[in-house]
Amino acid sequence: MRTRSMSAAGWSLLWLALAVAAAVAQETETPEAGAGFADRIDVELINVDVWVTDQGGNPAAGLGVEDFELIHDGKPVTITHFTEIRGGSEYRGAAARDAAENAAPGPTAFFPAHVVVYFDQSRLHPRNSRGLVESLQQLLDVEQVAPERVMIVRQERGLIVESPFGSSKRDLEAALQRLTKGAAGGLALETETQQAVQAIRSTWEQIQDATGLAQTGLGGVPGGGGGGPGDATGGGSPRSVVGGVGGGAGPDACGPLFNQVGPILDGFTRSQAQRIGVTLANLRDTASFLAGLPGVKALLYLSDGLDTRPGAALASYASSLCPSQAADLLNSVSGLELSTPFMELTRHANANRVTVYALQASGLRAAAAGDARSERNARNSHPGSRGAFESTQRSGEREGLRLLSDETGGRTIFNQNDLGPELARIGRDLGTYYSLAFEPPRQGADAGREHRLEVKLRDDSLNARYRRGYLDKNPDQWLAEKLEGALNLGITSNPLEVRLGAGDVQAGGEGTFMLPLHVMVPVERLVFRSQDGSSVAEVTVRAMARSFTTSILAIRDQTFRVKGAPGATGWANLTLELELGEGAHATAVGIRDEASGEVSYVATTLQTGS
């Protein structure tokens, strides 16, 4: 087998680690089946961040734990930890000091908030980008969030980080300027929608000609060319199709319309559902990446809208032509209603303490003369769409935004041309809230279950925003998600004081290399338990490496048993092999002490090949 040397860049720890490993007396081995610690007890506290305001929308300060009632899956639970965050720091007033008998800092300890500014370029029209960016620069100017805690990402099909956490204000401003040009996604979406409307209108005109409706004086129906008192744009009342045609001519026209419009509706609805599915998947990934960050995370989602009922607006337009077929037309798109995946996303985000603030960018501009003229021409060329289509479309686009915000404790922003006050309010939210924590009542393993949360206030004149539920995750899910954050965003945490090293790289399969990865853990950081007459620490290691060239992801999991005596010192050398292609690889490693539950996430770059 041919041996290849690994690049030395960035690997000064390798040799320290290997040298130390040689001196360590502890033995590591792969655990036998069924090995584990039967006496381990898991106690997990759940955080609930609550934003309380008065009737004027101002923060309500000075509340104590007695002012809150926390309900989990319909049953009251005891609030064991309570902290008031005021002005960006923990407030230690009398109410906070006396909040709970065991009000330890632990899970409610304050950490500065992080903000992700998420441009959904797949659903953002270029004409809205410049004004949106100019408004967002105010988020930096109000100085309520430090620049290094702001990240800017854009979504086209996948996610691209324009400016990562740790950036300077100048870096963030440069990233925003790059986004002023917008993307073609929103324009393509608008074009696809207009083409679908035109296809239905053309179909209706052809049916009119075939059935003779155009010669019966009913050319003014929606989609027709005549005028009538029922439509200010020049179309007649939609109901004149059925009511004004004798001899059953209405049903004769509506039957063919339903048959011919069905494929148009189906194709458009599936296309839109696929687009929305991509956005939901990317939002889910973003929430996963943020799992490793402590404290509150605000995701400012920017788009022209996000529909929970793709195709419903187009079906409403078609049904306005033939009300007798309305039920069938609307039912034809009901199968792709997306409320369930939206709710799944919010539960996932809530588990990671991510709050969504949704902003509809299309409400940020006053129509210019050219835009107004274009809009008026579009309406005149599609009579009838003004009520049935545009209203349903506008409502649907807002529904998804509202659902994401409401369920995660955030807010939705519609029809705001001046974002300054709204952004200042978001900045204030990140430093002014109440953090509650409780121990959830559990019967066995709850991983994968959704749980409902409700917060009630003693003073019913106050309003509360909070996450309304969360998805329970097991330790392996937490490990995987936080490792994604280390891999993709460089979010690391190393309480176990882990060091990494690598051995000689050897040729693997076709075009691949085998790289021994040494995970060095100080023995004194591990918790040993008695097992079969020995002191044993059980450690789970997961490594993920993504090629910078091909984006291929390699994952390796392994659990080790470290044998040692009480009070032992030195390093445990946990070694696993990664099979990688040639080139550089972003690499993240998660290490979990199974007895204590302590986890480290570290990241580096690996190089294979010449």
Quick rundown:
The protein has 610 residues and is of the alpha+beta class.
Total strand segments: 26
Q: Enumerate the spans where pLDDT stays under 50 for 5 or more consecutive residues.
A: 1-43, 99-107, 215-251, 365-386
Question: What does the largest sheet look like?
Answer: 6 strands, antiparallel
Can you give the helix content as a percent range?
25-40%
Beta-strand residue percentage = 25-35%
Shape: globular
Query: How many alpha or pi helices?
Result: 14
User: How many structural domains can be distinguished in the coordinates?
Assistant: 3
Mean pLDDT value: 78
SS-based structural class?
alpha+beta
Q: Cα-atom Rg, whole angstroms? A: 29 Å
Q: Give the CA-CA distance, first to last residue.
A: 16 Å
Describe this structure in words.
The chain is of the alpha+beta class and 610 residues long. It folds into three domains: 3-40 and 478-608, Immunoglobulin-like (Sandwich); 46-111 and 427-471, no CATH class; 184-419, no CATH class. The protein is built from 14 helices and 26 strands. The strands form five sheets. Strands 2, 21, 22, 23, 25 and 26 form a six-stranded antiparallel β-sheet that branches. Strands 10-9-8-11-12-13 form a six-stranded mixed β-sheet. The longest helix has 41 residues, at 249-289. The protein is globular and about 95 Å long.
